[in-house]
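Thread: Lipoprotein, structure

OP (GT): Posting the sequence first so everyone is looking at the same thing. Length is 115 residues per the record. Can we get the structure tokens written out before standup tomorrow? I want them in the notebook alongside the other entries.
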Amino acid sequence: MKTFGLLLLLAACQTAPWENEVAVSNDCPSYAEWKKAAELRQVPGIVINEAETSQTSTWLYILTSDSTRYFPCNLPETVRKTGTKVVFNADEFAPPPNVRLAGVPVKLTKLRQIP
């Protein structure tokens, strides 16, 4: 009976694929030495690619309804167009002391595009 309970628990922990899921790379050298601060789950947002409209900015981030800017180190090319609606899971990182950022550094662990 204990084996069955363990199998049931393991099955519950498996993440099911999302509809319209986009594959994300596990590679994230930008934040490799930074400390993980939190896990984010099912955060909706809109991709903003300032390089599309600016001659000086190359910022690429996900903007949420509360105006938080998430800077993912592994945002796939297929969703890098401004206005793309997404929902994501991510690991949030804490920048080192004395490092100021314009948003929250994250490594995407799961991503889906909203049609």
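GT: Both are above now. Quick notes for whoever picks this up: The beta strands are 35-49, 60-63, 69-72, 85-94, 104-114. The radius of gyration is 16 Å.
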